[in-house]
């Protein structure tokens, strides 16, 4: 099989875990399939993914090899692979637009972005870099709320004919206008808003689905999350949270037996706790009624390192994007999006999505 040249937008904690993971599973962990949903995906293994281009706006990252930039502040995720080799891809200055929230400037430099004064990227410069490097997949790791910035890079991907993987809750794949643009261009897009490997949303969805299958009425529920990375710091600006909250809430509502009234469901980021760094803690409560209307409730506390929790999923999404390219598919790639994302164009249960995904990978289902 050929390699998968990848371009990364936003070299933050999630990108750090992704790049570390590519080295881990290609070198020291190359014989350890644990931690991946698919070791071999339609003939592609993690070692086939190569980072060839990247964009960020932080002065501490711009101009450095991606292998070095992923360990620069304000990144604070776990270092689980300390032998990341040079990628040969230098981080280019990106386009700011709404990618950096003004409130971040109030924090110490170790926490906030230190915006580079280098000339910002243009559509022409991004498209040229994508073509020069031979990138086939662009993966988006911009901060939550980066609507204009995400649309900028999505537009670049369409022009360059590069598949787009939208990991964040800005609606592109699930937006009919953008979906049609990718479809007309014959360019694949996967999205929106990546589900972690075993995170708050997938656990909440699984339990909600279990309630429905076991005949338990779900009356009310909440999911409260705290963390100390730049993602949580960025989301202390509530104006940037609308799409994130909608994405996470709809992921739960879509598998409930009956939709809950707005007052009876609360799902979303709750607070920034600096000393947690990249550790995310979820507090989950579900209240329902069983046989005879007898009440019951579940309370759960989940603690995970946030960015590695999504990296394995990202590796699968990148490979599915490449498979879509190989098969000449364009527009939203529905089945992988439904399984890997919180707000896909088509919401289905995880069991059904998994079955469809395996058929897509095997080539027995088109999309």
* Element order: H for helix, E for strand: EHEHEHEHEHEHEHHEEEHEHH
From the alpha-carbon coordinates, what is the Rg to the nearest angstrom? 20 Å
Distance between the termini: 21 Å
Largest sheet: 7 strands, parallel
User: Beta-sheet strand percentage?
Assistant: 15-25%
| Overall mean pLDDT | 95
Structural category is alpha/beta
For the largest beta sheet, what order do the strands appear in spatially? 3-2-1-4-5-6-11
What share of residues is helical?
A: 25-40%
The coarse silhouette is globular
Helix count equals: 11
Give a count of the beta strands, DSSP E runs of length 2 or more.
11
Low-confidence runs: none
What's the topology here?
Blueprint: E1 4-9, H1 13-26, E2 49-56, H2 66-69, E3 91-93, H3 123-133, E4 137-140, H4 147-160, E5 163-166, H5 176-185, E6 188-190, H6 200-213, E7 217-227, H7 230-234, H8 242-253, E8 265-272, E9 279-289, E10 295-305, H9 308-326, E11 331-332, H10 334-340, H11 350-362
Helix pairs in contact: 1-9, 3-4, 6-8, 10-11
